[in-house]
Amino acid sequence: MLSYAAETGKGEGFSPPDAGDFNLPPFIEGNEFATKPILLAFLSVILISLFFYFSARRAALVPSKLQFAGESVYSFVRNDLGREIIGQEFMRFVPYLFTLFTFILVNNIFGIVPMLQFPTMSRISFAYVLAVITFFVFHYVGIRHHGTIKYLKDILFMPGVPKPVYILLTPIEIATYLVVRPLTLSLRLFANMFAGHLLLLIFILGGEYLLQGSLVMKLASPVAFAFGIALTFFEFLVQFIQAYIFTLLTALYIAGAVADEH
Amino acid sequence: MEGSLNLVGYGLAAIGPGLAVGMIFAAYINGVARQPEARSVLQPIAFLGFALAEALALFGLVLAFVL
Prior knowledge:
heterodimer, A: about 260 residues, mainly alpha, 7 helices, B: about 70 residues, F1FO ATP Synthase, 3 helices, about 85% helix, elongated
């Protein structure tokens, strides 16, 4: 796409980062599973488990700093995402929402941690799996709560709508519940992580390439690096927002499935 | 896709979400200006709206790379 974009003179030209840069080859030759994103996913699970294990170990009434941090994260998901949105029966879903939130957040943060620097969710398979699990969770919850026929009737033929509108409404609802919701959930997370990582790559690799150029380009490279630093902070915000949004939307879909009447 | 047509497509596709994000946060600022106590009530809604609108711009960006 950008093949003609940057022949800036010296050397063989700048080859801007593209989607191929996300294809990290495996460490061990034949083994397809020993790639960096998979190791990062395992590492995130280990880190989260250790953090919360040590946070809850000597739980006192007056919390220590670690316990306070762990409890803050948990109560954020439980109250602001669970109780606020799902309402009465929220405790059943808090483990799943909490797992989603912390898993996505830690994997996103790996995008700016110095030695790791690869957001796991920028490989789309991770995002697809989480969205598929959410899809099964909220449909299963709806079917368990309402019964299959009544649940399907409620979502496909919304009550309180004049009859002829169903010709227009029902295909849209089918597309929404079966296709659009899991697809946009996964693509939103993936696209944010992909675009963020790509931006960081462009500014930092570009800044380093500019250092090898003429004097004018050498003077321009600190600007590129400064943008890289600013974007790193921005990426931190975006990563937190994306983890929050994924969990928030999951909670909203579950709330919609469990809700009694419109 | 030949040439930079996908970039032009992405640029056009980013008009809508750009306007949408601006309008969402304009509504949030208006709401907080009228009633500062509503800040924490409106904030999750503002971020939810922002993420939903931003998602469309990012689909365009990803498709510009893929195609």
